[in-house]
Design a protein that fits this description.
With about 160 residues, the chain is mostly helical. The chain is built from nine helices and three strands. It has a domain of about 90 residues: Orthogonal Bundle (Arc Repressor Mutant, subunit A), CATH 1.10.10. Strand 2 and strand 3 form a beta hairpin. It is elongated and about 65 Å long.
Length: about 160
C-alpha cells in the first residue's frame, strides 16, 4: 500500500491534533504558571531521612516478585481463607502436586507462607495478617475501575 505524502496543507492539521492531545499537560503547566507552585516549606517535608533501609526495599521487591505470578497469586488468594493442605491446593488449582509444592517452596522462602506438618500431610497458611491484607487489598484494587481521581480532576 502506498503511503500518502505530507503536504504543507497537512501541517496545520497535524499541529492542531498534537495540541488537542497535549491538553492535559498544557492545563497542568498553566496551573504552575498561575502561582500554584509549591514552595520551600512543601519541599522541606520531603527532605526527611528515609526510615526504610535498602535491605527492607530489597525484601519487599522479592516479595512482590514471588507474588507476581498468576498461579502463585491464586494460591495466595485461596490461603487468605485459611490453612490448606498441599493436596487440596493442587486439586483446586488443577495442577500437579509437584508444581504446587515448588510454588509453595518459593513463597515459603520469601516468608509469605508458613507450613505445618500433621503426620504425612503438610498444611500451608499465609505468614501473618500483613500478607492477608496485602493480597486482599491488591486483588480489590485490581477489581476497581481504571479511572482515578486525578484523571477526573483534569477533566474539570
Amino acid at each position: 500500500m502506498a503511503r500518502a505524502k505530507t503536504t504543507a496543507a497537512d501541517i496545520p492539521q497535524a499541529s492542531a491534533a498534537r495540541t488537542r492531545s497535549n491538553g492535559a499537560a498544557s492545563r497542568a503547566a498553566d496551573r504552575h504558571r498561575d502561582g500554584d507552585r509549591c514552595g520551600p516549606e512543601e519541599h522541606a517535608r520531603r527532605l526527611r531521612t528515609s526510615h526504610v533501609s535498602d535491605e527492607q526495599l530489597e525484601r519487599t521487591a522479592a516479595l512482590f516478585r514471588a507474588a507476581g505470578d498468576v498461579s502463585r497469586l491464586k494460591l495466595l488468594d485461596r490461603l487468605c481463607d485459611g490453612e490448606w493442605c498441599v493436596t487440596e491446593l493442587a486439586d483446586a488449582a488443577g495442577s500437579g502436586l509437584s508444581t504446587v509444592s515448588q510454588q509453595l517452596r518459593l513463597l515459603r522462602a520469601e516468608r509469605i507462607v508458613t507450613r505445618r506438618r500433621a503426620g504425612k500431610h503438610i498444611f500451608y497458611s499465609l505468614a501473618d495478617a500483613h500478607v492477608i491484607d496485602l493480597i486482599r487489598t491488591a486483588i480489590e484494587h485490581a477489581g476497581e475501575p481504571h479511572r482515578h481521581e486525578h484523571e477526573a480532576a483534569d477533566e474539570d
